[in-house]
Structures are given as C-alpha cells and as structure tokens.
Amino acid sequence: MAQYFEVHPDNPQPRLLKQAAALLQKGGVLAVPTDSSYALVCHLDDKNAADQLRRIRQVDERHHLTLICRDLSELANYARVDNRQYRLLKLGTPGHYTFILEATKEVPRRVSHPARKTIGLRVPTHPVMRELLALHGAPLLATTLIAPGETEPMNDAQAIRERFEHLLAAVVDAGACPSEPTTVIDLTPMGTGGEPEVVRVGRGSLQALGL
C-alpha cells in the first residue's frame, strides 16, 4: 500500500519529504510532481527499483529513462559534455528541458539506452522535486507517469494513488502539474561537430536556447 504525502507545492514540508527520501533509499518507486507532469522516480543504483519502474510503465530497456539532477555540476558526472554542449545546457538548466547526452561510466549500463549508450538528463525547477533531490543527495532515475495503454501523462495524485497504490512505495501530492511535457533536445550530434536535434517540442522555449 503506497504511503501518501500531501505537501505544499511551493514550500514543501521537509518532514514529509524526508520520509519520502527514506523510501527511495529502501528501494521504493515513488510518484512525484515535476515541471511537466507526475513522474515515477527511484534510486539510480537500485536494479530492482529500476525494474519495478519499468514494470509499472510496461516499457522495456529500449525506453529512454531520464536522470533528474540537482544542478549542472551533478549532471556532468553522468554525461560527456564538451564546451558547445555545456553552453547550451547552461541556458536550459534549471528548466523545462530534457537533454539527451552520451552517458559516462557512472551511469549503470542497464539504465542507459542499450544501442546508443545515451541518457536523458534534466534539472527541474519544481520546488518539491528540487527539495526531494537535495534530501536524497543524488540524481533520481525517472520516467513520465503515463499509465499503460494511455498516451497522456497523469496529473491527479489521487487518481495515481487509486491506480498504482499496490505498486508504489509512495505518492507525493503537490497538486496538479502543468500538462505540457518537457522539450527534448538531443545534444549528441554536437559531439561530432553537428547541431542539436529537437526530438520533441514541449514546455521549454526553443528561442531561449537560440534554436
């Protein structure tokens, strides 16, 4: 049975988020609010938790997972970034973007894309997500919470609880999130002199990145 933490969206109660962070350390999968919708998150280095995250979404190892990081310095530990890529990342973090980059050896092979050896990374602006990351002390492995058979992300915490309460360790309820997804930009072509490729246009402004 999933625990349920109702927190303030702008000033989340640290006591409740500490309990949520403790569940992550124990290998739990949580539903949490982000800049774009609710997401499933778990400890990066916990294989069983990552497998459970994929089972809930009903996706296989080819599905691109994302690392949610606290800041740009943390992101650089998990992706190979050159000067051109870094300048673009600096413009877009924190922000409503997911960047696809070449994964470093710090990223477990089971969570990077098996064919491309890439990983999606983002630095969120949502206060609840940022506080949870600070308490956890490391990036979280994440995927958008889209129920199996559906196409739209879930944004109602009560509905998430009712549907997944036996599969999740907890639901962190901070009210409804924006329903628009992040903008996804593949930066890997820049590593060989190419230009960034826009994979999905979403909430993040392309103009703000000069694209």
Topology of helices and strands:
Layout: E1 3-6, H1 14-25, E2 30-33, E3 38-43, H2 47-57, E4 66-68, H3 72-75, E5 79-80, H4 83-92, E6 97-103, E7 118-122, H5 127-136, E8 140-144, H6 157-164, E9 170-173, E10 183-186, E11 197-200
Parallel strand pairs: 1-9, 2-9, 4-7, 6-10
Antiparallel strand pairs: 2-3, 3-8, 4-8, 5-6, 6-7, 10-11
Helix pairs in contact: 1-5
Folded structure, characterized:
This protein is of the alpha/beta class. The protein has one domain (3-209): Alpha-Beta Complex (DHBP synthase). It contains six helices and eleven strands. Strands 1, 2, 3, 4, 5, 6, 7, 8, 9, 10 and 11 form an eleven-stranded mixed β-sheet that branches. The longest helix is centred in the N-terminal third of the chain and has 12 residues, at 14-25. The termini are far apart.
Compact overview of the structure:
By secondary structure, this protein is an alpha/beta fold. 26% of the residues lie in helices and 23% in strands. It has one domain: Alpha-Beta Complex (DHBP synthase), CATH 3.90.870.10.
The name of the CATH architecture is Alpha-Beta Complex
The overall pLDDT, averaged over residues, is 89
Percent in helix: 25-40%
Question: CATH class, please?
Answer: Alpha Beta
Strands, total number: 11
Class by helix and strand content?
A: alpha/beta
Distance between the termini: 45 Å
Give me the number of helical elements: 6
Spell out the helices and strands N to C.
EHEEHEHEHEEHEHEEE
- Biggest beta sheet summary: 11 strands, mixed
Inertia-based shape: globular
Q: What Rg do the Cα atoms give?
A: 16 Å
CATH topology: DHBP synthase
Per CATH, the superfamily is: DHBP synthase
Note the beta-strand portion. Answer: 15-25%
Contiguous low-pLDDT stretches (5 residues minimum) are none
Number of domains: 1
